[in-house]
Amino acid sequence: MAKSKTQFVCQNCGYISPRYLGRCPNCGEWNTLVEEVVTQTKANTATGLRRTGTSNVQPELLGEVKFENEPRIQTDLEELNRVLGGGVVPGSLVLIGGDPGIGKSTLLLQVSSQLSRKGKILYVSGEESANQIKMRADRLNVNSDQLYIYPQTNMDEIRATINELKPDAVVIDSVQTMQEPEVQSATGSVAQVREVTADLMKIAKGQGITVFVVGHVTKGGAIAGPKILEHMVDTVLYFEGDLNHSYRILRAVKNRFGSTNELGVFEMREGGLAEVTNPSEIFLEERLKDATGSAIVVSMEGTRPILVEIQALITASVFGNAQRTASGVDRNRVSLIMAVLEKRAGLMLQNQDAYLKAAGGVKLNEPAIDLAMAISIASSYKDRGTNPSECYVGELGLTGEIRRVTRIEERVAEAAKLGFNRIMVPANNLQGWTPPKNIEVIGVSTLSQALKLALG
Fold first, then answer.
1. For residues 234 and 248, is the Cβ–Cβ distance under 8 A?
2. What are phi and psi of 301, to 5 degrees?
3. Separation of alpha carbons 388 and 69, rounded Å
4. pLDDT tens digit sequence for 108-167
5. Run of H or E residues at 416
6. Contact 87/72 with Cβ under 8 angstroms?
7. What is the pLDDT of residue 95?
């Protein structure tokens, strides 16, 4: 006989409480605990073991495990291949999150069409009907005899269809709309998302099927549901961008088969997403030659160097407390750099409002952007323009020193490729390699030295 019990589960972090609480003691959020009925039966447990096939697994010595390096499946989008670490890995579970309307379904429909040339693809949609998907497919010029559309939310039906069709890849759009009939809770709840993801992982690993999963995001930008969702999958991709601009950024924050923090740039067009092979030109194409408060930095996104313009606007504060506003860079880092400029370079910035922005909508968070931020702030404060053919790389210490950064050769090579004549780098980075001949590499050791060379 089935045993039922009632528990209250936090929809934000997954905390389980035997009674209702107004505030979750684990994450501190209010009114997030929802009542769920849990039914446990011996039959269900046995069925789960048979479904996973884990009852026959035996321990093996590490040296006796047979490893076969399977070739990756290449898509027509080289940007996506790079973010995935070289292509689609068979039997992997990939989670893609992003804001509503950013283009997640469009990207996966294009990828499904490309992969269908090499095998069967099952596109499972819990949000759209077959007619809606067909309308988007016609707009994207997607048509294939190997691409199957399946509007369904019941996981029992989806499992049966996968066992019958035996596809090479499955797309789930989205995981929050799927329902596990054995779990007695609302669709999209923590328990449902956890069980559905576990089921998809068993399908991917047990049958060698690549599974792409779309995940909704909260208003804070994180993927909705329990954090275990991101822990269980092999790869987590975030699709970012501004709905007011056509460019989209696909960023890998977790990848068991490649480098993390890789970045791919796409442009949303009427016919779908088109890859941008040289994003540095996009980020720099509208830069004014004689503008003050502008500095170019060579930032690393995974293994890719990109050149981004950092803009700063320094104005006298009208009110008593000066404002610090940042877009695309960390606001706390802006305050830190302004404090170093005031203490080590003699700039009176405590009564100045500061507005900083990374142009193009890209987000930069590495220490190597410190020097460019400092020079852009000083340029706006002194109202002196920087050299348009010069860029800057370096981490700024609290004592005013310029500290070394990683991958300096790739950064310099990218700047030279885009036609920059001079690059300012930390002096300690000049050892052990030979700079290119078509760009002047200047090593600086202090902030005062860098400001003198950049602004005169």
1. no
2. -115, 95
3. 47
4. 999 999 999 999 999 999 999 999 999 999 999 888 889 999 999 999 999 999 999 999
5. helix 408-417
6. yes
7. 95
